[in-house]
Amino acid sequence: LAICQDEAAVRKVDRPALQRWLVSLRSPDGGFRLHRGGEVDLRASFCAAVVAAFFALDMDAVFPAEARTYIVDSQTYEGGFCSCLDGGGEAHGGYTQCGVAAAVLLGVAVPNNNDGAGRTLDLQNLERFCAMRQLDFEGGFCGRANKLVDSCYSFWIGGSAAMARACVAAAKLQR
Length: 175
Fold this sequence. Notes:
The chain is built from eight helices and no strands. It is mainly α. It has a single domain, classed as Glycosyltransferase (Alpha/alpha barrel). Helix 3 runs parallel beside helix 6 (93-106), helix 6 packs parallel to helix 8 and helix 7 runs antiparallel to helix 8 (152-174). Keywords: Metal-binding, Prenyltransferase, Repeat, Transferase, Zinc.
């Protein structure tokens, strides 16, 4: 709908029903399912954040504190993001982009804006994770430690690095 730039089509969307559907996909731990009965992971949280932001839904209703905390808690010790709260998942480029973008859309990426429990992203560690994904020999990016480069990670890691840099700049402005 955004690409079509058809405001009439956007207005036809039943926003209350859309919001109820998104909330129905939220799991008790705050994550979202990709579909009814589907797996819970950060991709779904990102998609829900994009849809909620695009349609100007009630972000607090769709993303209460536990849903915001789910995103923040998906950041690993490496600085990137893992797929879900599974007790120590490995950070991955694609999930990192989803996590950072969702955090930005929800306003929990920058200090002074937090998940409701006082936590925010570790931006310094995130920048380090992104920088460490570029390999010397090939010059390209990998999605995880000790993996080969792939062109798709230029998008995922490059986008994550750009968002991290913007968040660091915003944090400096808040001081």
